[in-house]
Each structure stands twice: as C-alpha cells, then as structure tokens.
Design brief:
Helices cover about 50% and strands about 10% of the residues. The protein is of the alpha/beta class and about 230 residues long. The chain has one domain: Rossmann fold (3-Layer(aba) Sandwich). Pfam families: XRN_N (PF03159).
Length: about 230
C-alpha cells in the first residue's frame, strides 16, 4: 500500500541507513524477492504520470531490461520470487476502489483539457499546411498519459504482462548460465494478496522448514515504504 513520505522522512532523519551499492560491495544472497508492481509503475509512467514510451512493445522491453539488471546485480543463488498484487482483502479493496476512481476522474479531466488545447491551437492556424500538421497531435507521444489503473489484478494489461514474464523466465532458464541453478517462483495477480505480503509469507514458510535452514540470505526489492514495517 505504501506510506506517504515515510521513506523521505526516515532518510532525512537517519541518513546513514542508506548506502550506495556497487557490484563489488554487494554481499551474496541466496534468495531474491521482487515486488513487480513497483517495477511496472516505474518503467511505464515514472513519477510524472506521463507515458515514457511511444508503444507498448517499447515499454515491455524497458520493463524486462530493468528486471534483468536487478537480477544480474543481486545474482541470487537459490530462489527468485516474482510477485505481483492479487485481489486485496475487503478492507483494502474499498480504499483501492476510491483511489482508482479518483485516478480515472483525474485522467478524464486531463484528457479534456488537452483536447481543448488542441482545438484552440487548430483554430489559430490559418494556412492549410499548419492545419495538416496539427492532425498529428492525435498520434501517441511519449508525453501522453498512462492509465496506471491498468496495473491492477484482473485487467488485460496484467494478464499480458504475466504471459510475457513467464516467457522471459523460461527463456532465461534455458539460455542464461546464471539462472541454471535458480528455482523461480511466479505469484501473479490471480493469487490473492498484495505482492509484498505474499513475499513475506514465502519467507516465513521457508524459515519454518527444517530442511531449508535458518542461515538463508534474503534480498527483498520493492518501492513501497511499508516493506520496512513488514
């Protein structure tokens, strides 16, 4: 869910908790856990809400390039767990509905303002050459708006993403030597629960297994500040 401005407050109050890592300074890890929703939000629209790519295919390339970079940097030895948000509990679902409604309403208002601006610019053009050039305004550009509501369980966008993700993992397991000893766990939007909670449940189950051992080194990557609480 995230906690607004918590990470910023914590970093300003205790700056030494943050440490820049390098490939040489990074410790070895057995298991790597990735909250996929954070990666999707960052690669699709960033913090501005605008589209970062001219096409969906370009966005997928960016998503899996970022994913490959994180995995190759951490280089887990045993498990790779990729989890996305599934259907939330009822109490959280009510909050999500309100938040997504506001996001959709804001997106519609932004689209209306852009259309008004486009029509106003066309009215100011007198010659046919300028009017012809204005027709290209309707084409998608990197500055367009990305509907972040599609990054939700049950959408076609998430179903397509996990089809791509499954193919990516199968390809890596077959072709990449660094993946040959890895066990990959995918927990998609069809599995109930938020991604970070599913990850924590996996860690708790692994810790309670006597065959797994308690000396497993875990690395958890996500953008929600509530991961600190978990």
């Amino acid at each position: 869910m995230g906690i607004g401005r918590f990470y910023r407050w914590l970093s300003e109050r205790y700056p030494l908790i943050n440490e820049k890592i390098t490939q040489t300074s990074l410790p070895e890890f057995d298991n790597l856990y990735l909250d996929m929703n954070g990666i999707l939000h960052t690669c699709s629209h960033g913090n501005s809400g605008g589209m970062l790519h001219t096409s969906e295919d370009a966005m997928w390339v960016d998503v899996f390039a970022a994913l490959d970079l994180i995995i190759s940097t951490v280089n887990p030895k045993k498990f790779l767990v990729l989890a996305a948000d599934g259907v939330a509990p009822r109490a959280k679902m009510n909050q999500q509905r309100a938040r997504r409604y506001r996001a959709a309403k804001d997106a519609a208002e932004l689209a209306r303002q852009k259309e008004e601006h486009r029509l106003l610019k066309m009215q100011r053009k007198q010659d046919k050459a300028a009017a012809k050039q204005e027709k290209n305004l309707s084409a998608p550009t990197p500055g367009g708006h990305f509907d972040s509501n599609c990054i939700s369980p049950g959408t076609e966008f998430m179903a397509k993403f996990f089809r791509h993700l499954r193919f990516f993992c199968e390809k890596k397991l077959n072709e990449d030597a660094r993946w040959k000893d890895l066990k990959v766990v995918l927990s998609g939007p069809d599995v109930p629960g938020e991604g970070e909670h599913k990850i924590m449940q996996f860690i708790r189950c692994a810790k309670s297994d006597p065959h797994t051992g308690r000396n497993v080194r875990h690395c958890l990557y996500g953008l929600d500040a509530d991961l600190i609480m978990l």
